[in-house]
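Quiz preparation item.
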């Protein structure tokens, strides 16, 4: 009975995530409600991003410079032009801010961008699944409940503004697993021949016009 009670108490930590805006450029909103008071601890969400979506490190740096978002990206060097099939998965450690009216509630938002996918057959969209974030706690002056939290292997400071070492903790009993699905528009393979023909025709026409203009108005 004691074990069941401990597990029930530890499951009180809840995580919700939501994709805001439309199109290829979205915003991920993460909300966390802890099962116990944070007691001055830093709270973060570790988000694993599949190859189909990414965070722009330059945009992230600009937001952090204006104190709008605090996060650490692994790896920190990203090819933002790479398509989905040539990209790598990323890990985002997003530092959450406390909400004013709830001592156990935290939230943060970060811009996300969808990558271009290969053309598909029979469908106009690709599905990118974003799994539920992992909640992390970093307490410099106290220790979280041992029944609900255990040390996590996260090599980063307690905030994006400090450089000292920090011991992060993660929930022993993860919240209910919830995937967030992003629908990315893709081209149809059935249209490949038509697209190639129109592209070649347009390229040839434009090249011819440039050549005519150069011969007529150019000075050789």
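Solution:
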């Amino acid at each position: 009975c004691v074990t069941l009670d401990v597990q029930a108490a530890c499951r009180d930590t809840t995580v919700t995530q939501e994709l805001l805006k439309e199109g290829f450029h979205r915003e991920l909103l993460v909300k966390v409600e802890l099962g116990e008071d944070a007691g001055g601890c830093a709270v973060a969400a570790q988000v694993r991003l599949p190859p189909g979506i990414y965070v722009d490190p330059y945009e992230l740096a600009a937001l952090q410079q204006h104190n709008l978002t605090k996060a650490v990206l692994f790896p920190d060097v990203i090819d933002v032009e790479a398509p989905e099939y040539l990209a790598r998965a990323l890990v985002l450690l997003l530092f959450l801010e406390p909400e004013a009216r709830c001592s156990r509630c935290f939230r943060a938002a970060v811009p996300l961008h969808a990558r271009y996918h290969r053309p598909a057959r029979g469908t106009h969209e690709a599905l990118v699944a974003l799994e539920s974030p992992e909640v992390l706690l970093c307490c410099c002056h106290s220790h979280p409940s041992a029944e609900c939290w255990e040390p996590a292997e996260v090599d980063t400071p307690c905030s994006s503004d400090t450089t000292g070492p920090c011991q992060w903790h993660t929930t022993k009993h993860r919240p209910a697993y919830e995937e967030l699905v992003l629908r990315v528009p893709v081209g149809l393979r059935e249209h490949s021949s038509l697209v190639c023909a129109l592209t070649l025709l347009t390229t040839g026409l434009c090249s011819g016009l440039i050549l005519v203009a150069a011969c007529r108005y150019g000075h050789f």
